[in-house]
Structures
1.
Amino acid sequence: MALINIYHLYPEHLNLYGDRGNMLALSRRANWHGIEANIIPVEPGTLINFSNCDLLFMGGGQDSDQKLVAEDLKGRSSEIRKAIEEGMTIFAVCGSYQLLGHYYKTTLEEKIGGLEIIDLYTEAGSKRMIGNAVISCTLWDQPRTLVGFENHAGKTFLGPAMQPLGKVITGYGNNGVDKTEGAVYKNVIGTYLHGSLLPKNPWLTDYLLQKALSYRGQIFQPQILDDSLEQQAHNNAIRLAGSRRHKRISSQV
Amino acid sequence: MGREKLEVRKDQQKLTKKGGFNNRLFKIKLLGAVWFGKVLIVFTRILGRGGTTLPGRAALRIEPGLSSALTARLAEGSLVITGTNGKTTTSALITGMLKEAGFSCIHNQSGSNMSWGVASALIGSTSWSAYPVGDCAVMEVDEGAFPGVVKGIKPRGVVVTNIYRDQLDRYGEIDLIKNSIKIGLEVQPTDGFQVINADDPSLVGIADNSKTKRWTYGLELDLPVDQFQTGGRDIKTCPRCHKKLAYDKIYFAHIGHYHCPFCSYKRPEPDVKLVNRTINPDGTALLQISLPGENFELNFPLIGTYNLYNILAAVTCAKALAIPTAFIIKASEKAVPSFGRMELFEFNGKKITMALIKNPVGANEVLRTLLAQKNRIKLLVAINDKIADGTDVSWLWDVDFEQLVAIKDNLSTIIVSGLRAWDMAVRLKYAGFNPDQIKVEEDTAMAIVQTLEQSTPEEMLFILPTYTAMLEIRRHLNKMGLGKPYWED
């Protein structure tokens, strides 16, 4: 049986927006596809064994919790970078996504250093970007939609060579300006979308599982699953994101 | 309510007797706003709505100082109850105690708790000459609206129940909620009082610097270990040094007996304590309450640990108001579930329980009660994502629906409904339910009719709606002759 080790970073701290749902989706779908998912919760202050980690999940946290992550991982960016170059998968949401970049500049012009793993930086904005979001994602031969909910004040800008996760159809995305959302570098995916993101976008869950497996030379043999509930939830969320009611709400915030 | 009351009155006279053109204009605008609001209440009720949002909103647009002017005309002033969970029940309990003591209260009992909800409730109980009919106002107020309302109506007493994660789409991060409550506590006039839950570390951290007289309450009981520990945990870090707190006891979420091993921060000794609970043969609880120089017992009919905190908050507030113990005891015995909080209905011999769900901690408490049921259960979960529900439904993933899988043989069907019915269906699938056991009916009216048709008198139908889904379902139940319209007391 194929096996993957999923490291869950600070389940108690980085769980701001239902990030438990992302872990649940990864472990359930792994099992449904006949993959054994070994989930390893990581507590603050403990060292991650990156040579054993196939997929690292980092959820969203409050500013204070985000600082804990930064402290624990700061000294280890070279190890992380090495693992990433070799193909380790990272899925990072919201605050953790920002942390992967160079820095976060606060409204007081103070720069908080990031892990410098991918080429992006974030600046605090004056207005929170809150609401349903739909993006067109090109991780596959045919673009597929991803739907989630975003809630961030930071505006993230990608370096010139960076690929976004997708193009914004509805919502704000990285910064509300350039219509990009998230970032992809090798097998690292960062995004502002939660909701939780993975349950309603099962193709992204499967994509992450596949990448995590191939990192250790294992082959992903997907089972044919009945995803009709997920597909319905996906379609319904897209419909709601485009509804007039939602547009009115998001313009109010 | 002796000397303070008189002083408040003098202040009001100063306010209302001030002459001048601006003051007269204000009075005219106030009168207009009240009249317009009252007419709108009549119209919205003819349309079968509660009139708890629109009239207040419209009236505030005409005169933004409306709530402040009306409450200033109340002889006993006003009380504001805020916090994530327990606002509605706590404010109903406080109202009960005040009524028992002979005061008449204006109370936004339907849970419409934004600034316009407060305004609507005030207008509803105000005469056409813009004088409120009542001695005092008891208002539950949303955490986000709290600073604005406190600034406006200058309450004598403020009660803060707890701070959990709730509806982050509206406030951004939980730090913003804390900040909002902190500002509210700071702008309250310092001659009043504040009632604070000593068992909530983040709340105590906020209220620490306030100059207003502070009353604290807390549980000192041995309760069975909580199995709902996996979801909805939030603030277990020390508010002073941000390191991990240590707990001697956890009652639920982050509520309990805590101290920080790294700095001196610890749970304050509560002024009012619940020291013992015994369950009476009829299912009600006999609670033993202890405060400096006084011990007394009261019978309390509402179930659930969270209701122990609600009654304790109410008792503490009543004590701060110097209400005699006999009235407190009498009112506690008469407590009934508030609007949508474990309300019971019966339709052709079929039993229905409706319990509002709106955030992980509250929803887990509801599931806990549901798990204790011996009857066969039918479940209807209705999730909307309107503003009052929270437009972000990701909180559903922090609710421990996994616990329900353990009793799935005792669950005949699960019907999911509402604007976010499909999200809920996916949530249950990933909790471990077979998709065949989940039925989706987006329309709440259809869902309630079909579910009732299929249920039997041996079953208990549990309806778990979000706030606006509850209003919809309640309208359908009212049409079927169940319950009273929610704007009637």
2.
Amino acid sequence: MLEFRNINFSFAGRRGAVEVLRDISFSCKEDEIVAVVGPSGCGKSTLLSLAIGLRKPSSGEVLIDGRPAQGADRRLGMLFQQTTLLPWRSVVENVELGLEIRGEPKEKRRARALALMHQYGLGGFERKYPHALSGGMQKRAALAQTLAVEPTVLLLDEPFAALDAQTRVVIENDVVKICRAGRRSMILVTHDIAEAISMADRVVVLSRRPATVKKIYEIPLSRQAASVADVQSTPEFAHFFKEIWDALDISVTGMSPGTESDVSAAA
Amino acid sequence: MTLTHRLLVILGRLAVLAVILVGAEIGVRSGALSELFFSSPSEVFKALLTQWSNGSFLQDVGITVLETLLGLVSGSLLGMAIGLLLPQLRLVSHVFEPFLMVLNGIPVIVIAPLFILWLGLGILSKIGISVYIVFFAMFIPVYTASLRLDTTFVDALRVMGASRSQIFWKVIVPSSLPSVYTGLKIGSGLALIGAVIGEFVASRSGLGHMILYASGTLDTPTLYLGIITLALFAAALSFAIDGLGPVLVHYRFSDEK
């Protein structure tokens, strides 16, 4: 279980401190998928970088299973938006990278990587270099790389944004299945409302900067449906989509400078 | 490329070479080309025999080759090491950047006499000059690549719990290899230039010395001999460096895309 407790985060900008996150609290239990949506630039990804220790919160704490997260915590795994497959390593060498860093003996980590690759439909691509793989397969390999170290909490930072629509649904579906099978906690940061609704059990909506938790929606659809695609054809999907869209308060005419304070006042 | 295409290319190249050689031979013998400015292949060959028999040719070639290779290897290693380490020490790199840029701007020909002064007339001063220019050829691409390194890779490894030295060896060093290859390509040409410039400024042997001496004594065939030998060596060196590409950046050369 991962918990954000009263997180505040600001950084020193050119014209004084920039407040990014304000009093953010929510948690992601074991065997739960939580999606975080918010307007672009609101600090969604910052939240994840706080969890993995790349940045420190100005105040508040991140707890994993009740204990404060240590930078680069072994219980955390993260899937990034950009590829993290090192181009000079073959796919299998990439998948075993996390185990290599932990000092696992070569045969053991190789066996584990090969088994994972087989499980994720990457059999036969072990000796290829990442550039020889399609976008969807690269994502699968990155997922195998992340899961090889068996993290209990999985963090996803808009990981599917660069995939084409069909591949995307397939991978989203795989990720949900893998996550549920391992009873992991998963936090998915996304700007895609449909993705959030169809994958998550709960959706946390953040406001514009400084981001506060605007609303949290319980979404029962993902756990009931057989696949991500099925969720999107239920009548409830449209209902949640409309609600979250309204909560995000995305002005179709574009942002005006006044809206920022309005949003924080409303929240 | 089809087989006939390749065959035609080879035949064409041989034809061009033949035209140059035969043209020079006929031109000089007939007196159409002045013997002071040009030289026939047979005269150049005679010069080679003379230089060979008095034992100076192999020695001159050997010295220039040695200076070039030692300059290339040590300059590249130095450029690589500093290019990789400097970006890790942000403060130090900010302090040294302008100094390095100014040093890089000095034309090698004007700094050569200083190296002669410091390191003497022997091969050490030529290696020094070579190291000096090769260093920058390697340092600049490696340094810029390290600064522009994709931070996602570094972040991903940090999340996996990698230490600074693991990040250095598993990400920073391998990601610099394409730039090392670029540095070697540029550096190999410059290493030779450095060695020959050193020999031009002050020396007792080497191909540069041979050329300068031939020029001073109006020995045109030996002058051409020196130029041709240098050209062949430069070509062989660049060919060898090209062969290093698939070793250094094997993944870029893997044929599957």
3.
Amino acid sequence: MAITREQVVKTAALAHLELPDDEIETFTGQLSAIIDYMGQLNELDTSQVPPMSHSTLGEHVERTWRPDTVTPSLGSAVATANAPEGFRGFFKVPSVITRASGDSDAS
Amino acid sequence: MSDSATNTIAGLHSAYAAGTTTARAEVERRLALIDQLNPSLNAFLTVTSELALAQADASDARRAAGEPTRPLDGIPIALKDNMVVTGVRTTCGSRILSNYLPPYTATVVERLVEAGAVVLGKTNCDEFAMGSSNENSAYGPVRNPLDTSRVPGGSSGGSAAAVSAGMAVAALGSDTGGSIRQPASLCGIVGMKPTYGRVSRYGLVAFGSSLDQIGPFATTVADAARMLSVIAGRDPMDSTSSEAPVPDYENGLDNALAGVRVGVPSEFFGDGLDAGTRELVESAIQRLRDDGAEIVDVSLPHMRYSTATYYIVATAEASSNLARFDGVRYGFRAEEADELRAMYNRTRAQGFGAEVKRRIMLGTYVLSSGYYDAYYDKALRVRTLIERDFSTAFQRCDVIATPASPTVAFPLGAKTADPLQMYLSDIYTITANLAGVPGISVPCGTSEGLPVGLQLLAPHFGEVQMLRAARAVERATPA
């Protein structure tokens, strides 16, 4: 196996995916086969070859810059209209920090 | 199904000018055809009837007022459902965006509408454009209009099927590893991926940002050229869009190929290529020679590493791009979680389908600490070698000719159990995305009664010569 069950579990946590046991099993087999296949790149000596993250069209370089000017934007009402849960133009989410048991509000 | 009088831009424009039909009549006819065919083909996810009829009426009114005809005036088109239109549901074929109503419109759509096009609706696709058969949509598979037991190809299968079946005259798809060219090949139509940077990606939901490119489907090369002329060009909203001037892609389309060098890379004609496909592609190349082209042998020696390279680069970019789908700002949210992290994890687990999860997992793995150098960095270096192969080959030729797909359309379910086999369906198309060069699939005949596409590749911004060569294939292919 190119990838172990434990690595799949760890990767799922990094990827914010809750996977049931049967999916972890399936993925362990499938990802192993694919990662094995990817191993063929090791046949090539690339120590003297630079990495290419984008198509290297020379003219790309200059046009990544533009003046930093303020332009009209959507506004919070439109920008939050698709939110599963909103509150007065904000996005509402479940609690981020859960209190340890025994804590209570110091009031 | 295809009738050149009313299934091409030129045909429709002559008919409109002669008064034998109107944009409204053509749009009504196609809406009726969608009603009739969509239950079996599943090509459209959303039909924008009201919008389409209003745009058709506006086109008819412009003509009645004597205004000059716009490049796509009254032409019914379809959009892959990963391009946003204000207020029109955009799902990307995913449950996680089942209720998403975009607050803005993609630049390509603004340009099409400005050119007079009529938007019929949004087409089905593999979820987030990840797939080669259109079986990964949360809304069910698309079926090939030429044989409904077979796939239309993917990921832009709905757009390909819509044009192939005559529901739309042209359509837009997106191509990250072949997702326009492969379904065009399997559905018997023309499909083109322009040079990376030729067409704005603003409003295209991102999959692999260094690979994604929007392009047209049409029944003829001339129509694909017209569509490209409309959508190409610099867009301030996409910093990777090129300032290179946009030529008239229809100009000189019928020029003979005298003096044009067509490169044939042996690496694209090896094991895994169907005999029938090989025969048709080779005889199409022979006909290019008859048209005056010079056929030269070229080599792309690192092509055999392209699938491995692609599925590292594309999944790495996908895992990063799809991190934004977390149940906070838009889309689906899992209900039962009472804590933020659990909400993220459950939303993504329930909102994404199996293939998308698989690619997010792969991409996360190849980017993770301890594996980044071995996989992601390695793949970026091999990507350089693949681009160098093209640079070397294009010193000896003007365009490269290959098969678009190793096989004709395959039966539904044939490859769903083995993801790696499915990935190998893209073997002839992904190199162009890695190198950023343009590619087109043009029909070159039928094998076992199913269409085969010839793929032409050109240097960066070499679309003019590529389209002329594609037109030469089209001219020489018996109907």
